[in-house]
Design goal:
This protein is α+β, with helices and mostly antiparallel strands and about 230 residues long. It has a single domain, classed as NADH Oxidase. The chain is built from eight helices and four strands; from the N terminus they run H-H-E-H-H-H-E-H-E-H-E-H. A four-stranded antiparallel β-sheet has the order 1-2-4-3. Helix 2 packs across helix 6. The longest helix is centred in the middle third of the chain and has 22 residues. It is globular.
């Protein structure tokens, strides 16, 4: 039978400004985050990546199992192998796997199977989800846990002045093969991380306004239709 974990006093973060201002300051940083496909080869220190992964590692997870692995790649040959494998899957996607509706939705972003940025960026971060822990134990809410960790990683990169791309070639099994990951680790996401190119451009998209993404409490219940006479269906 598992024993209860020891408890320690909670040490909350207290901003040096009112909470409304602190929340807006964070928003003003992350609202500038954009998906980038035009990267510079400007170096990014390993320490910077380590801090960003450390931030990701603070994410909540089911039963604190922390079912994630961030494999950080800077080796040029590995990046080349990943690019070639990813482009092979992307060619299949654009030629056969994607529906016409999906391809139409992608047209505004001018994407195609060519992914030169996978070699240009100083770092590729391959995120794996653990289907069991390293000791063989059960894990819980894996996709939710890893998704939250990735969100924190992206926010940390933005805070560090870095650009990112959430790249999802499908299927991604080649990542486990190229990176020699064990069977219980499954590819979740590939994130190029670096600085944007000097000539970098991004699509002119707009975020949904707050009133389209936030609901407070619940909408009022529609009024019931007035009842008819008791003998209306007699």
């Amino acid at each position: 039978m598992a024993t209860a974990a020891p408890f320690v006093p909670y040490a909350p973060f207290t901003p040096d400004i009112p909470p409304e201002a602190a929340a807006k300051r964070f928003y003003d940083t992350v609202r500038l985050r954009r998906t980038v496909r035009m990267f510079s080869d400007r170096p990014v220190s390993r320490q910077t990546i380590e801090w960003c992964v450390s931030a990701a590692g603070t994410a909540p997870s089911g039963a604190n199992k922390q079912p994630w692995r961030f494999v950080c790649i800077q080796d040029a040959d590995l990046k080349r192998q990943i690019r070639h494998a990813a482009e092979a899957e992307e060619r299949e996607f654009y030629a056969r796997r994607a529906s016409q509706e999906w391809l139409t939705d992608l047209q505004p972003f001018a994407t195609d199977p060519h992914k030169p940025f996978l070699e240009t960026v100083p770092w590729l971060v391959a995120v794996f989800k653990l289907m069991r822990d390293d000791d063989g134990g059960q894990v819980y809410y894996v996709n939710e846990s890893v998704g939250i960790a990735v969100g924190l990683f992206l926010a940390a990169c933005q805070q560090a002045g870095l650009a990112t791309l959430t790249h999802t070639p499908s299927p991604m099994g080649f990542l486990a093969q190229v990176l020699h990951r064990p069977e219980h680790e499954r590819p979740f996401l590939l994130i190029p991380v670096g600085y944007p190119a000097d000539h970098c451009q991004v699509p002119d998209i707009h975020r949904k306004p707050l009133d389209q993404i936030m609901v407070v409490d619940r909408p009022p219940t529609p009024s019931a239709a007035p009842a008819g006479p008791a003998d209306a269906h007699a």
